[in-house]
Design goal:
33 strands, 46% strand, 5-stranded antiparallel sheet
């Protein structure tokens, strides 16, 4: 029987850990960067987080999206305003303190959501242990969140897990859906991370109807990172492989990598992969380019420290997050000198939008907004656990 979800966990539990990570005192969000406050009474300690009674602000410009896993919500960052849309509700914590959410919350489930992806018409969010991909129309602000429940399937266990066949279900009876990637504007692929079997399964879903079209196990272990490549998608696997998959979920190629992938982005016919070292490799962190047709690769950069994180591409530039160093590094694809921009610590997601780098950081649960031209950085509160930031075209 499906385990009973722990309800919509009390708002106090969701937010109790905000700002609890050791480190320097966090920089508070500037007053000009705060959204308007909801006039509703604070959400009670035993209540589920929910949107305020007031209507959401209309966006002035393009939107980026931040997933807050602790609040089970998505916040919309208005690139024109330079802040999250409001009104922002207040919440009572278990310590009987009143805190304010970063912005207007679009609740996407009853368990912590994971990574997100965006297309022209849709925002997609991986539903974690609920085994869902959440499909949300962009109108341009967000519409109603619709969860699509994905089934557990039989997989062939990784050899390290004993081999043989088994279900990829978690204790909830559903798969753990951790990653999503948009295929054009009409389909989305949700990718599981199967803890008990050392595997991953791709689920192909039709965006408008929510219909599951098919599923297939991805070869070579468990997925660590995923990115679309126009004709399909690529997956960085924990066994040090890059798997190229087409729109029908057929694995076309599996290429060796220089490390265990931590981030992947695609530029036309090539992928850029950031990795940490596999046994026997001298460099702790690497950034490499892989030709998706031949598997030929070249190393762009290497570091002696194991800080390699997510990557994004804009034009001929790779933006490489080095989480523990609190920096995002600009690496020219065609050769040249790197440029280092200060960010925040423990970066777990990056995106490029309107001349800025957006990075979610876990040390103080913040969104860093870094102007590419000047290097100026702003830090905004991003909730209890900002798991992902995505922006259209970035």
């Amino acid at each position: 029987m499906r385990a009973r979800v722990a309800g919509l966990v009390a708002a106090a539990v969701l937010l109790a850990a905000c700002g609890s990570t050791p480190g320097p005192t966090p920089t508070p969000t500037a007053a000009a960067d705060l959204p308007p406050l909801s006039h509703d009474p604070p959400i009670g300690v035993k209540e589920a987080i929910h949107p305020p009674s007031e209507p959401r602000e209309a966006p002035k410009g393009r939107l980026a999206y931040v997933v807050d896993s602790r609040a089970y919500s998505v916040y919309e960052y208005d690139l024109e305003r330079g802040r999250f849309l409001g009104p922002a509700p207040r919440v009572v914590t278990t310590a009987d303190k009143v805190v304010t959410l970063p912005g207007y919350p679009t609740v996407v489930g009853t368990q912590p959501p994971q990574q997100a992806a965006v297309s022209r018409s849709w925002l997609y969010v991986a539903g974690g242990i609920e085994g869902t991909v959440v499909v949300i129309p962009r109108l341009p602000d967000l519409g109603r969140a619709r969860p699509v429940h994905l089934p557990a399937v039989t997989v062939q266990r990784d050899a390290l897990y004993g081999g043989g066949s088994a279900s990829n279900a978690t204790e909830t009876g559903a798969p753990l859906v951790s990653m999503v990637v948009a295929l054009g504007d009409d389909r989305v692929v949700a990718v599981s991370q199967d803890r008990g079997t050392g595997t991953s399964v791709a689920y192909l879903v039709e965006s408008a109807s929510g219909r599951l079209l098919r599923s297939a196990q991805i070869p070579d272990g468990t997925a660590n990172a995923v990115a679309g490549n126009g004709e399909g998608f690529v997956v960085g696997m924990n066994e040090g492989r890059l798997v190229v998959v087409d729109r029908s979920l057929s694995a076309l190629h599996s290429y060796p990598l220089r490390g265990n992938p931590r981030g992947v982005a695609v530029d036309g016919s090539q992928a850029v992969v950031s990795s940490i070292a596999l046994p026997g490799h001298p460099d702790a962190s690497t950034l490499e380019v892989v030709d998706l047709s031949s598997g030929a690769d070249r190393q762009l950069r290497s570091l002696s420290n194991p800080y390699s994180g997510p990557v994004a591409i804009e034009g001929s530039t790779v933006w490489w997050a080095l989480g523990d160093l609190s920096q995002v590094r600009s690496v020219p694809l065609g050769g040249g000198t790197d440029r280092v921009l200060g960010s925040c610590r423990y970066i777990n997601s990056v995106a490029v939008a309107r001349g800025s780098i957006l990075a979610t950081c876990l040390e103080h649960n913040q969104l860093a907004v870094i102007d590419i031209a000047s290097g100026h950085r702003r830090l905004l509160d991003a909730g209890g656990f900002p798991d992902s930031v995505v922006a259209p075209g970035g």
